[in-house]
Design a protein that fits this description.
The chain is 29% helix and 13% strand. The protein has 14 helices and 18 strands. By secondary structure, it is α+β, with helices and mostly antiparallel strands. Helix 4 packs across helix 5 (229-243), helix 5 crosses helix 8 (319-329) and helix 13 (500-511) packs across helix 14. The strands form five sheets. The chain has a five-stranded antiparallel sheet. A five-stranded mixed sheet has the order 14-15-11-10-16, with helices on one face. A four-stranded antiparallel sheet has the order 2-1-3-8, covered by helices on one side.
Amino acid sequence: MNEKQYLSRISQLENEIEYLHGLLDDAGISYKREAKELDDLSPDRNLAFEEDQGARILPVTITKQHIQYYYYLFKGRNDVYSKRSGKANKKTGKHGYYTQCWNFWKDGICPKKNNSQFNCGECWNQRYKELTGQVLYEHLIGAKEDASDVIGLYPMFPDETVNFLVFDFDCHDDKIGGDDGANLDQDWMTEVNAFRKICENNDVPVLVERSRSGKGAHIWMFFEKPILAVTARKFGTALLTKGAESVNMRNFMYYDRMLPAQDHIPINTKTGKPGLGNLVALPLQGQALKYGNSAFIDENWNAYPNQWDCLKEVKKLSSETVEERIKEWSAEGILGVLSNEFEANSESSNDTKPWDKAKHPLHKEDVSSIVEIVIADKVYINTKNMKPRMQNALRRMAAFSNPDFYKKAAMGLSTKGIPRIVFCGYDDSGYICIPRALLDSVVDRFNEVDIPFSLTDNRCTGTPLDVSFNGTLYEEQMRGASTILEHDNGILAATTSFGKTVVGAYMIAQRKTNTLILVHNTEIQKNWIEDLTKFLDINAELPEYKTKTGR
């Protein structure tokens, strides 16, 4: 064959491979392939990933110089530290980290000896152990098979400065996470790949560490000198907001993954004493490293053979760069444009007035075909041939900053488990799924920038109902009902005794279709039944529902 025939054959084979990949994807069968998209970089799909990660790592004799450089890079508080427990908690089956104290379990001094539920943060006899070179040496050697020599570092100093910022992709939800923060799904890998790409696109040097469980990750970024924790967290937040312009971010959990998780040192509400803040497990744990975990990895999730060379090559961010990037990336607010109907975001850096809120920017060039929109139980928007910037803008239309988060943060209380951004949507099978109330806004945004779209209505039309209204509405009731009836969705917010159930009965008579009414207690249920019976004339047989019996 000549060159032209070879190229034609290669093209034919590539098309056949893509077709076979499509069949495997449709059948939900996992396989490995050459990484072309971010999702393909994950170990379960990446041909470049090596199974025996421990064998990749070169053994190193730990010296005093190693320990000094290690603490220079991962510098946190040295007047206190935590260690991983060698035994799992009997109730949860998971290992925790415990602050090291000279008075631990001493008779008459340590309250925990007589009350295992006692919180060490409330103890007046605290006498913390200092973090020494010997402790770090034991962490790096990993001589203890139960990993009880693993160190947890407190990154925030008493003056509220930090030397590094960590994005934690472990799962710390006790209900759904495994031991040592292990994730039980694969979504976290996609998040790590996406955030690494964000950092790469915006020239932010980072190190990616696979966690000790092997099913989680930490992404580290370092500063040339200590900066305020609030500034470091603003930088991380602004980086995510900037990254949404170029990398697909399917959720807003990224904003809750930063360590430290607080802008300021938390205050114990019972004692009034300053707390310690979050701890972070240090990398290069001796035991875990044997299996290629607690190790720094490349974009193919392979551990770097020489972990120490990797550490020495990492670059640090100057405080000037941090401040400049925050200012540059926060033109529309530190969190970007969200669907806030109120200003709960205390981090907002612009002067947008309540009556002049920024719109979610859409760009015609971000989509190369007609956008398919399907209305069913939600609004489903097909993301095929749609760039990440536009996908993220659509998701942001269904997201708002959480007032509860900022209330707790302002009071110095824990925000664990409270998301900074509430997202009322999700992604499913190539579609962005958002509430139906946003349909008009989506259509308006598309029309404003001349984006072509198709609209398919798959909503349940209900059963026609022969019903009439037996009554007369007051003027204000009629005004509210008439306004809502002009739309497919609406909310009637009115004071007590306004007659909202009567208005509801009137609208049922106007729509003339069977209607589902949901209430939160039996008293309101009785009110609805009474008003519907009084104000509606229904010429139809009521359906009978029978509860299934037996097993």
